[in-house]
């Protein structure tokens, strides 16, 4: 029996910032962003969207009347939680009209949370192959205006169903992981923007990748020649390129070319959306599926990293049911119909945060199905426009 990723969908708001314009406004060479960081655009998140609404907008594309009653758990990875106590998964469960006899849990370890969800889900489905698990990664990356991390902001959500006999990726049995108490990135409860030691975090990311990759090889006796492509956690796309270059010498010259071609395919979407935190690896995987030429049976390696720090390497083979045409068409339409905002509008939207009191928000400019309409009696008011 195969277990793995059956569906994988995405949502981010339709507003975006062009990073060439941001570079001009910040008086830096645009190539510092376009080449040095590897980003071209980033999603701009309005106040009418938060991690719950973005997750619902993504997950509504994988939950339908056929599988709604098969969902046994909702596992919500995020580091942008909206409540110190109540799980974002509980709000999501209600918005998706999922049954009451399920678990709904929020998972947190920086950008690693959704991967923990995938692994927990896989173990559950192994015992209950007739059921499915909904795994979500939803976040808003905030570092502050005119900060070094500003160019690596963004946001959005991915939603996956983990099932037996999946349509996308059959997960292999072995995964390898590593955790250390490291202060490379953190956000205290009293801050709305993250703190990061950028160069240190890059070094830890690469060191973790090399460590879990070596551990994986020793446990499986697989080598780089056994892989068609690697998908990486991409807080910015140059980060994954640095990690890939660390192991490329293990491959033949011909395979190095193939791995680099597939890496370029894997970062197309992330380059245009920005940093999703918990969803970044899985948006990269979706981009790889849609933009590369893949065949059933080929093995893909996945590296997940969450600052603080947790890293994991695992793998899977392309399913015999693999078909990407519908997904690629959706992304083509999404990118073709986004609305570009200028730097002044981006800065205004960035500063527009929810107050600590009741408020009614103007949702008329938000074209999403699920929106945040305000706060009433300290409770966020979510609206499903199709209800």
From TrEMBL:
Alphabetical UniProt keywords: Transferase
Sites where the protein binds (3S)-3-hydroxy-3-methylglutaryl-CoA: 29, 143, 242, 275
Classification of source organism: Bacteria, Bacillati, Bacillota, Bacilli, Lactobacillales
Protein name: Hydroxymethylglutaryl-coa synthase
Family: Belongs to the thiolase-like superfamily. HMG-CoA synthase family.
NCBIfam families, sorted: HMG-CoA-S_prok (TIGR01835)
Domain Hydroxymethylglutaryl-coenzyme A synthase C-terminal: start-end pairs: 263-341
GO-annotated biological processes: acetyl-CoA metabolic process
InterPro entries in UniProt: HMG_CoA_synt_C_dom, HMG_CoA_synth_N, HMG_CoA_synthase_prok, Thiolase-like
A single GO molecular function term of this UniProt record: hydroxymethylglutaryl-CoA synthase activity
Residues forming the catalytic site: 79 (proton donor/acceptor), 111 (acyl-thioester intermediate), 233 (proton donor/acceptor)
Species whose genome carries this gene: Secundilactobacillus odoratitofui DSM 19909 = JCM 15043
Domain Hydroxymethylglutaryl-coenzyme A synthase N-terminal: 2-164
Highest taxon, organism lineage: Bacteria
């Amino acid at each position: 029996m195969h277990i793995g990723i059956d569906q994988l969908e995405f949502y981010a708001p339709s507003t975006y910032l062009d990073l060439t314009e941001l570079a001009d406004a910040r008086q830096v060479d645009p190539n510092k962003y376009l080449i040095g960081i590897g980003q071209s655009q980033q999603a701009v998140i309005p106040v009418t969207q938060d991690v719950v609404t973005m997750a619902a907008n993504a997950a509504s594309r994988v939950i339908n009347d056929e599988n709604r009653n098969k969902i046994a758990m909702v596992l919500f990875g995020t580091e942008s939680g909206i409540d110190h106590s109540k799980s974002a998964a509980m709000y999501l469960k209600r918005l998706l009209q999922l049954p009451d006899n399920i678990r709904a849990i929020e998972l947190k370890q920086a950008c690693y949370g959704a991967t923990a969800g995938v692994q927990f889900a896989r173990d559950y489905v192994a015992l209950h192959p007739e059921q499915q698990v909904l795994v979500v990664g939803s976040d808003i990356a905030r570092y502050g205006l005119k900060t070094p991390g500003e160019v690596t902001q963004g946001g959005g959500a991915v939603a996956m169903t983990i099932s037996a006999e999946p349509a996308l990726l059959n997960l292999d049995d072995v995964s390898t992981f590593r955790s250390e108490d490291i202060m490379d990135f953190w956000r205290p409860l009293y801050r709305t923007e993250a703190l990061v030691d950028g160069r240190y975090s890059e070094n830890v990311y690469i060191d973790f990748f090399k460590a879990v990759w070596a551990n994986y090889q020793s446990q499986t006796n697989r080598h780089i020649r056994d892989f068609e492509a690697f998908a990486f956690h991409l807080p910015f796309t140059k980060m994954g390129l640095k990690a890939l270059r660390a192991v490329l010498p293990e491959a033949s010259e011909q395979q190095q070319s193939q791995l680099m071609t597939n890496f370029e395919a894997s970062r197309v979407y992330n380059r245009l959306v920005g940093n999703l935190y918990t969803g970044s690896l899985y948006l990269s995987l979706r981009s790889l599926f849609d933009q590369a030429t893949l065949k059933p049976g080929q093995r893909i390696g996945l590296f997940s990293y969450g600052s603080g720090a947790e890293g994991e390497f695992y793998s899977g083979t392309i399913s015999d049911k693999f078909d990407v045409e519908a997904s690629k068409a959706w992304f083509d339409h999404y990118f073709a119909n986004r609305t570009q905002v200028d730097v002044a509008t981006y800065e205004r939207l960035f500063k527009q945060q929810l107050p600590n009191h009741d408020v009614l928000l103007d949702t008329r400019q938000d074209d999403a199905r699920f929106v945040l309409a305000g706060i009433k009696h300290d409770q966020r008011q979510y609206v499903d426009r199709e209800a």
